[in-house]
Design goal:
The complex is a heterodimer of chains A (386) and B (379). Chain A has helices at residues 3-18, 45-57, 75-87, 97-109, 112-123, 237-253, 264-270, 276-304, 312-335, 351-359, 369-380; strands at 129-132, 148-151, 155-166, 173-179, 189-195, 201-206, 215-226, 230-231. With 386 residues, chain A is α+β, with helices and mostly antiparallel strands. The N and C termini of chain A lie far apart (53 Å). At the A-B interface, helix 7, helix 8, helix 9 and helix 11 of A face strand 10, helix 8, helix 9 and helix 11 of B.
């Protein structure tokens, strides 16, 4: 038996022992996700137990170093961890922008002190982070952002406004792009971290077409940020942001895969679908979705050994989000009028319709599909003037 | 297993790319034989060179004198064949017939494999019976007669049938046309009495035949594998052919895509390079995404097939459908973005469109395979 086989046996036994049965049911909606943080209310004892048990072993962030709250798994071990989690259908013990986005940026750009402090908090589910990037006038053209941090010696005073800040009203801290030099567009932005309870920070949820408000407007009115709360160098925040956007695109692109045992077509058949054209569309969709799953796997394999094109996350983001929108169009079509219900108990409070509407943002947030295609044209295809 | 080529495979890819890029080019092979109205549609000298490089034996076991490699390696060669539109009997002989013969007894393998390995023999597979691929239904009959069998029926789209020394024929030895069981594979020599072939040139200048089996008498030792129980071996042959054709499609798509992006960087209209137009950039970038995804599905299917995984069946269908879809888009966009010259025979892009059309039909098009995906996914 190889070391990896032994490791798989250990993981399997640990999961069997520690993952509560309720946590092996698929999440029904966003409400079932464990986000952690100061304001988070656990939905069940099992959810709390599951997060705490994983955090104690470093399994909330299995591939982070042990010193920063992870389990220090190498890529092969981390893959086994994911496979064994999938095998029993275990929910992620903890989900957060800290894990997906800030964490990777800190691992690359953070000081040792920052890593120990912030990464540990993220791994234990103590602090929930939000991301302050987009502004009312800076969407696709993010680098034109105006939120300004005035140098006051040992701290900055930040003024401005962010928009589309996911869960800003539920987050504890924000990682935020702030202009610290008005004379230099790209090299005049710094990457700052601060507490959302700092005086001068306020948030206002935005009601979306889905009827939900996952995004906020976030206002900064003379917010004081100590100088040690900067990641990377002064005025070089764009480097951190670009690196992090790559991770965001990877994360969003992950949405497009397929679960063979749970295809929309199989669901529709159980519910008496007898529409040959819809079935044909579902079949073509499954071809694309299963092929994209293979692409996701290939992309991760190539990233590990540095074979992936550095701009490849843009392709993944483009294809994955477009696919996910298609998936939800087809879910609505197979659901028929039942999928239109907005707040009935039977529809789970309109889960299908609301999720369908939510997915329309997939190809807007984190860089629109059109921007992704621009980036592919320029950086991968090297087309002129792109 | 990681979804990229390991060191040995990367070396094979280098060899194949260089060889096909020098010897298998459109000018030296496809146009040359087409313009000569060659009855084979490919060059035997090139086939000998395939043998010298070991390509012909990629899927033949080491015990039989081959390289004992897998569908990943065969796919590497096929992708370069696709990129250069190189006409050769590689897919029918070294992939499909070799896979069939791998399920045959010592005597049969000893009779046919040395010729294949040496690049002296060409094989074809006779499975389809109508204009669409539908191997679930096999009406060609083989009845016991004398010391062997007598085959009666018709086969269509037998690629390289006219050049083949032997045809692998799927026939029914028991049951009704649509039955799963009762299939037997036969190795039928080209000169068997009662075998006649009508050769047709296809849109891509490749040659195929309509085969008539009019009481073709073969000995019992022409049986490949088990009598009545040949469905499993037939499926292996089909899967190898499908994933192979998918790999070739990825090559065709890649060749067309490279030509097209090169053209976008050269052609000027309205005082600027047409590649500067965002309308074309976005279409090219979308196409790039589709090709990358198709490529991933193909290598995934190849690996699953080589590992003998039960998931291979589904992924092969995905790969054939996705590669077909992506390649079809690549050649259509290729011709359109080339504008008027894309319609001329002189320019190569149209040849890619023709080859894609023939490959799309070979061993099932995207509709056939999407239907399989639906069935294998529980609906």
């Amino acid at each position: 038996m190889s070391d990896l086989d032994a490791f798989r046996g250990e993981i399997r036994a640990w999961l069997e022992e520690n993952c509560p049965p309720e946590m092996r049911e698929p999440a029904r909606s966003d409400d079932d996700i464990c986000w952690g943080g100061r304001k988070f209310e656990f939905k069940s004892e099992a959810q709390k137990l599951w997060m705490e048990r994983c955090a104690a072993k470093g399994y909330t962030v299995p591939d982070w170093p042990k010193a920063y709250g992870g389990a220090g798994l190498n890529p092969a071990e981390a893959k086994i961890w994911r496979e064994e989690m999938n095998r029993i259908g275990a929910r992620p013990p903890l989900s957060s922008f800290g894990i997906w986005m800030l964490g990777p940026a800190l691992l690359k750009f953070g000081t040792e002190e920052q890593k120990v402090h912030y990464l540990g908090q993220i791994a234990r589910g103590e602090i929930r982070w939000c991301q302050g990037y987009s502004e009312p006038g800076s969407g696709s053209d993010l680098v034109s952002l105006q939120t300004y941090g005035e140098d006051k010696g040992d701290h900055w005073v930040v003024n401005g406004q962010k928009i589309w800040t996911s869960y800003a009203n539920k987050a504890d801290w924000i990682f935020c792009l702030v202009r610290t030099d008005k004379t230099n567009k790209y090299q005049g932005i710094s990457f700052l971290l601060f507490d959302m309870e700092s005086p001068g920070v306020s948030t206002k949820p935005i009601l979306l077409i889905s009827g939900n408000s996952p995004f906020c407007e976030t206002f900064f009115d003379n917010v004081s940020v100590p100088k040690h709360q900067i990641v990377g160098e002064l005025n070089r925040g764009w480097d951190v942001a670009k690196y992090l956007l790559g991770h965001e695109r990877e994360m969003i692109s992950g949405a497009g895969g397929n679960d063979r045992l749970n295809t929309i077509g199989a669901y529709a058949k159980r519910n008496g679908l007898e529409d040959p054209l819809l079935r044909a569309e579902l079949a073509m969709f499954d071809v694309d979705a299963l092929a994209f799953t293979a692409m996701g796997e290939k992309f991760l394999d190539e990233i590990k050994v540095g074979k992936a094109h550095p701009a490849q996350p843009n392709m993944m983001k483009y294809a994955g989000t477009e696919l996910n929108k298609r998936r939800h169009e087809l879910l609505m079509a197979t659901g028929g009028s039942a999928a239109l219900e907005w707040d009935s108990e039977g529809s789970g409070g309109g889960a299908k319709a609301r999720t369908w509407l939510r997915t329309k943002a997939n190809s807007i947030e984190g860089g629109t599909s059109e921007v992704m295609l621009n980036v592919i044209s320029k950086r991968i295809l090297d087309l002129p003037g792109a | 297993m990681a979804l990229y080529h390991n060191e040995d495979q990367a070396m094979l890819a280098d060899t194949a790319r260089q060889f096909m890029g020098e010897e298998g080019t459109i000018a030296k092979q496809l146009r040359h034989w087409r313009d000569k109205q060659c009855k084979d549609g490919f060059g035997h000298a090139l086939w000998k060179q395939f043998a010298e490089l070991g390509f012909t034996g990629i899927l033949v076991s080491e015990a039989d004198g081959g390289l004992g490699m897998g569908n990943v390696e065969a796919g590497i060669v096929l992708e370069e064949i696709g990129r250069n539109l190189t006409p050769s009997p590689f897919l029918t002989s070294s992939v499909m017939a070799a896979t069939a013969l791998g399920g045959g007894n010592d005597e049969l393998r000893g009779r046919y494999l040395p010729g294949l390995l040496a690049g002296d023999s060409v094989f074809a597979v006779a499975i389809d019976e109508g204009p669409k691929h539908r191997p679930e239904r096999i009406a060609t009959r083989a009845e016991r007669a004398g010391n062997g069998f007598k085959l009666t029926g018709q086969k269509a789209f037998v690629v390289h049938g006219g050049s083949a020394d032997m045809l692998v024929v799927a026939a029914r030895t028991a049951g009704a046309d649509d039955d799963q069981d009762g299939i037997t594979l036969f190795a039928v020599p080209k000169d068997a009495a009662g075998l006649s072939q009508d050769a047709v040139r296809l849109v891509d200048s490749s040659m195929a035949t309509h085969v008539k089996l009019d009481g073709v008498q073969v000995d019992a030792d022409a049986v490949i594998g088990e009598v009545d129980a040949g469905r499993e071996l037939l499926n292996r042959v089909l899967n190898a052919g499908r994933v192979g054709a998918a790999a070739e499609s990825v090559g065709v798509a890649g060749g067309a895509f490279d030509m097209t992006t090169t053209y976008l960087k050269q052609r000027k209209q309205f005082g600027q390079l047409i590649g500067e137009f965002q309308a074309l950039q976005h279409r090219a970038s979308h196409l790039y995404s589709e090709l990358e995804i198709a490529r991933a599905s193909v290598i995934k299917a190849q690996q699953l097939l080589d590992a003998g995984s039960e998931k291979a069946e589904l992924m092969v269908a995905v790969a054939k459908a996705k590669a077909g879809k992506a390649a079809s888009l690549a050649v259509k966009e290729g011709v359109q973005m080339h504008g008027g010259i894309g319609m001329t025979d002189e320019y190569d892009i149209g040849l890619y469109m023709k080859r894609d059309r023939a490959l799309a039909e070979f061993m099932g098009d995207m509709y056939y395979h999407a239907e399989r995906v639906a069935q294998l996914s529980g609906y």
